[in-house]
Amino acid sequence: MERNGKSPALSALERVAEALRENHSSEAFWKTLETSLTAVFGQRLFTVLAFDTDSRRLCRLYSNRPDINPVGGIKRVTQSRWTEQVLVRGELLIGSNREDIKSVFSEYETLWSIGCESVLNIPVRTRGVTVGTLNLLDAAGAYDHADQALAAVFGQLAASVLKDEAARLRGLPDPAYMEQV
Q: Considering the chain, what percentage of its residues have pLDDT values greater than 90?
């Protein structure tokens, strides 16, 4: 419990809700969300991806490590276990170790180099459609006991902001080089 009698999770949720109420810029909202998720779950790397189902593209909207994952990167989505679980079914994905990271991310060696050996992917959905993901990566086993229901609530709080960004992605042309996911 914090000094005000609230749990850290409730305080974190309140900060995110306040950022939505105050109509902060997207960048300010993502920073508040990052701080709040970190307080509850921890992370070494946090990214936000918008997903457009029509074009099957993901675009990185936010990264706390632009040296590793720069903002603006666009990826074409291919069929994979991750795509089916997170983007199609809208289910959280928890990876616990290096092998889990390697099975999901093509840049696994870079992630390992900064100590990222586990992942919590939180799908963000609106009306049954995934519009993006919140992605936390940390040391091995970091999310094995994560409160999945709480993670889903954070995801839903991001839905309106991500929905707008995913719609904007539809109008962007394909870059000359696009990474495959």
A: 69
The stretch 22-26 carries a mean pLDDT of 83
Token reading at 145: 């006991």
The letter for the amino acid at 48 is V
pTM: 0.89
CATH superfamily for 41-180 is GAF domain (3.30.450.40)
At how many degrees (to 10) do helices 159-170 and 148-157 cross? 60
| CA gap 34, 30 in Å, rounded | 6
Six token digits for residue 68: 């590793």
Q: Which segments of 41-128 are extended strands (E)?
A: 45-52, 57-63, 74-76, 93-95, 118-126
Which residue bears the tokens 């909202």?
A: 29
CA 19 to chain centre: 17
CA distances from 105 to 20, 95, 110, 117 (A): 31, 11, 10, 11
Q: What is the pLDDT of residue 15?
A: 96
The pLDDT mean for the chain works out to 90
Calpha distance 117→96 (Å, rounded)? 7
User: Above pLDDT 70, what percent of the chain?
Assistant: 89
Helix (H) or strand (E) holding 20: helix 8-21
